[in-house]
Specification:
The chain is α/β, with parallel strands linked by helices. The chain is built from twelve helices and twelve strands. The strands form three sheets. Strands 2-8-7-6-5-3-4 form a seven-stranded mixed β-sheet, sandwiched between helices. Helix 7 links the parallel strand 6 and strand 7. Helix 8 packs across helix 12.
Length: about 375
């Protein structure tokens, strides 16, 4: 049985045009981009073009784009690279950050830094009053994601960045879940650094970037031959980087059409969810157009995901990176959701290939599954 895919926040399928751009560099154009011969020069030109494409999508100069292996490495490079350059002070991160920001920040707390988690509202938005309170302490690093990977809620990054700069702190945003879904403008966000990744916008896994203010000084976390302006040593993954650039080019062309279309699909989905009695998290806050995060009281999210998988639908129990963890979502707990309800959370994330007929069929399947699970719960009671 071929599954209908509703888990695009975990990863997206590789676009055919992206694959087409990558294929020459997986076959005949296999040169090392640091080599001086013709094959190396072809690879270097391809990397340079991709850098321009990524830069154009986020409104920066190509020299501000540092290619790495993905969002996790980019986040670690900023947090650890900044901490190695600065004197220990406070590191302030939102309570809903992805683990690849939260865990490096926790690690700094073992190295003389003071970790401060910034509170969010019940709708999952950063609490600016708590940011103001936190920044009364000497602060070196602030990191607040642009769009949450579970709820899809868009954060007021520019407002946080203004406060961070006044406090003379370095401001970073993880924009992985926002890129390609909403306009992302580095200058407008007023941040010092930003993380982006290819495989969330129909590009390949294994490519990402840290976008940086030219005046920012970081220490590398990977040492070697001095690639990527000395910040990320290692032979460039040319096919993946080329794919990243191509995906960014496609995203720039498609975003104006794709966003409203996905928002219409989500509106129909959530109408059906309400009719079935679901609780939708963060629905009153601004969200990226493709994401819905919901739960049914008395039904465990993992169970619902398994039953929907059997019915031919791929959804996720919260964040894909933590799906093996039986604990309730840290994001939902930070939002004040009761642990029992949080354990029921299911994330539904749309993509370019989804359609209204798929939503209608999904709602029928969901109604059947939920009705059966509720009856089993009633029998058990």
């Amino acid at each position: 049985m071929e599954h209908v895919y509703f888990d695009h926040n975990a990863t997206t399928p590789l676009d055919d045009k992206v694959l087409e751009a990558m294929l020459p560099y997986l076959r005949g154009r296999y040169g090392n981009a640091s080599s001086r011969h013709e094959l190396g020069t072809l690879s270097r030109k391809a990397v340079d073009l991709a850098r321009q494409q990524v830069a154009a999508l986020v409104n920066v100069q190509p020299s501000q784009v540092i290619f790495v292996s993905g969002g996790t490495e980019a986040n670690n490079l900023f947090v650890k690279g900044a901490a190695s350059y600065l004197k220990p002070a406070q590191v302030a991160v939102s309570a809903i950050e992805h683990p690849c920001v939260a865990k490096p920040a926790q690690d700094l707390a073992r190295q003389g830094w003071k970790l401060r988690k910034l509170a969010v509202t019940r709708e999952g938005q950063i609490n600016l009053a708590d940011v103001d309170e936190a920044l009364k302490e000497p602060t070196g690093i602030v990191s607040v994601m642009l769009a949450n990977n579970e709820t899809g809620v868009i954060q007021e990054v520019a407002a946080v960045a203004e406060r961070a700069r006044r406090a003379r702190a370095w401001m970073h945003t993880d924009a992985v879940q926002a890129l390609g879904k909403i306009p992302v403008d580095f200058a407008a966000l007023n941040v010092h650094a930003m993380t982006v990744s290819a495989h969330k916008l129909y590009g390949p896994k294994g490519a990402g970037a840290l976008v940086m203010d030219k005046r920012l000084q970081l220490r590398p976390i990977i040492h070697g031959g001095g690639h990527e302006q000395g910040l990320r040593s290692g032979t460039e993954n040319v096919p993946a980087i080329v794919g990243f650039g191509a995906a960014c080019g496609l995203a720039a062309d498609r975003m104006a059409e794709l966003g409203p279309r996905l928002e219409k699909l989500r509106a129909r989905l959530e109408q059906g969810l309400h009719e079935l009695g679901a609780v939708i998290f963060g629905e009153r806050a601004p969200r990226v157009p493709n994401t819905s995060y919901f739960a049914f009281k008395g039904i465990v999210g993992e169970t619902l995901v398994i039953e929907l998988d059997k019915a031919g639908y791929a959804v996720a129990p919260g964040a894909a990176c933590s799906s093996a963890n039986p604990e309730p979502s840290a994001t939902l707990i930070a939002m004040g959701v009761e642990p029992e309800l949080a354990r029921g959370a299911v994330r539904f994330s749309l993509g370019a290939g989804n359609s209204m007929p798929q939503i209608e069929e999904f709602l029928k399947a969901l109604k059947s599954v939920v009705t059966r699970l509720r009856s089993l719960t009633a029998i058990a009671v």
